[in-house]
């Protein structure tokens, strides 16, 4: 866990604020385990894949919470996911794919297709971020 996803998320939040968007928080995913009880939010999740398809430590509790949510629990929320990984690994962006599928399965409304940032691209994850 190198902090790349967190750095990308903070950069996104900075640019979103400059464009007049209201950013409530830029936190670890583990800080969002109570989504069903929160007012409607737009979730923009930046997720790195660690090791061989593993979910980073800052998202393990959120993974567990999502596994316990039921269909419709997140229906008042919207989301998009940007997954970061390295295509040289068999389970490329597996953590991002997991969260993308689970958020949708729990009823959150997709606002954009999952973005992919590949460390093997010429300029790393930047290629996917600007696409």
Helices, by number, come to 4
> What is the ordering of alpha helices and beta strands?
HEHEHEEH
The general outline is globular
Taking Cα atoms only, what radius of gyration do you get, to the nearest Å?
Answer: 14 Å
The tally of beta strands, per DSSP, is 4
The description of the largest β-sheet is: 4 strands, parallel
Tell me the quaternary state.
Answer: single chain
N-C termini distance:
24 Å
Coarse structural class = alpha/beta
Low-confidence stretches: none
Question: Helicity, in percent?
Answer: 25-40%
Please tell me the overall pLDDT.
86
Which percent range describes the beta-strand content? Answer: 15-25%
Task: Provide structural commentary.
It is a single chain. Strands 1, 2, 3 and 4 form a four-stranded parallel β-sheet that branches. The longest helix has 15 residues, at 4-18. The chain has helices at 4-18, 60-68, 94-105, 126-130, and strands at residues 42-48, 78-85, 109-110, 115-118. It has four helices and four strands; from the N terminus they run H-E-H-E-H-E-E-H. It is of the alpha/beta class and 131 residues long. Helix 2 links the parallel strand 1 (42-48) and strand 2.
Strand and helix layout:
Elements: H1 4-18, E1 42-48, H2 60-68, E2 78-85, H3 94-105, E3 109-110, E4 115-118, H4 126-130
Parallel strand pairs: 1-2, 2-3, 2-4
Summarize the structure.
The chain is of the alpha/beta class.
Question: What characteristics describe this protein?
Answer:
131 residues; 4-stranded parallel beta sheet; 31% helix; globular
